[in-house]
Amino acid sequence: MTEEIRWGVVGPGRIAEQVVKDFAHVDGARAVAVASRSLHRAQAFAGRHGIGRSHGSYAEILADPDVDVLYIATPHPQHHAVSLGAIRAGKALLVEKSFTATVAGATEVVEAARTSGVFAMEAMWTRFQPAVVRARELIAEGAIGDVRSVQADLGVSRAFDPTDRLFAKELGGGALLDLGVYVVSFAQMLLGDPDTVTATGSLFETGVDAEASLLLGYADGRSATLMTSLRNALPGQARVFGTAGWIDVLPRFHHPQTIVLHQVGADAEEITLPQLGGGYSHELIEATECLRAGRTESTVMPLADTLAVQSVLEQAAGQLGVTFAEDPAAL
């Protein structure tokens, strides 16, 4: 690695517009290139964010020798092909959630990264939020005893538009891959991989899931009850129940500033820990520090967890009658 970690952005869409602003808070890292299938779009993004080079195809940024790591923010089904191309090019990866559109696609990317010794991580910013980090510390310290159950919900009310990515099946639309990944990842982070997945919900006319409720079951009786929706707004709160108390993660739990610790026999304790910048800086710092240290995986967001979450999402979608496919022509 060079002294400065040089980042490239693949897919200058809505999320990338927000993430790239947080490079200002990451020491020794800089966005130096951006790629889109539209050169004009790449150039416009670069101009807005002071990025030096613009590429009119994903293949061009993979071949750019002055890029060390790629932040991939294309639609979900394109992550697979672009990630594999990046790994072949020896470039490290930070891949937006959901990691891919399918378990098979995620498995192939993970195996390729591990075989090649290339760093890869899912951009699940929730795990790096200071308030969530503190909640995990409290749980590890035994502040609420043994964790027995997790509740989480995340939903927005979106007017149905079949031309929007969120509602297009070929672009990996639907609530599960876009919002459900947060509630599932949060539960998996605290409870581990579930033994059973039970889902119910409804579909939009384009064949993607509009809403879903999930029950994750564990052989020892632990459970997670999760909700996600594009049909109606949900509070966006999470609650972690233990044998000696519980922790509320206040809305919106996937990038919270405040948690409330409730211990049996004690007054509630409110803990507020703001994010740095827009909150994306923490995952960028993690990836940058891993690269500097020569690590190929993050211990906070390991690839095994990504695969477990992808499996839950695929099982839930399948029970609703939804299947997704990777886009082999993404490059």
TrEMBL record:
InterPro entries: Gfo/Idh/MocA-like_OxRdtase_N (IPR000683), Gfo/Idh/MocA_domain (IPR050984), GFO_IDH_MocA-like_dom (IPR055170), NAD(P)-bd_dom_sf (IPR036291). Gene3D superfamilies: Dihydrodipicolinate Reductase, domain 2, NAD(P)-binding Rossmann-like Domain. Residues 5-121 form the Gfo/Idh/MocA-like oxidoreductase N-terminal domain. Keywords: Oxidoreductase. GO terms for molecular function: nucleotide binding; oxidoreductase activity. Residues 133-247 form the GFO/IDH/MocA-like oxidoreductase domain. The keyword Oxidoreductase applies. The keyword Acyltransferase does not apply. It holds the Pfam family GFO_IDH_MocA. Coiled coil: none annotated. Belongs to the Gfo/Idh/MocA family. This is Oxidoreductase. It comes from Modestobacter caceresii.
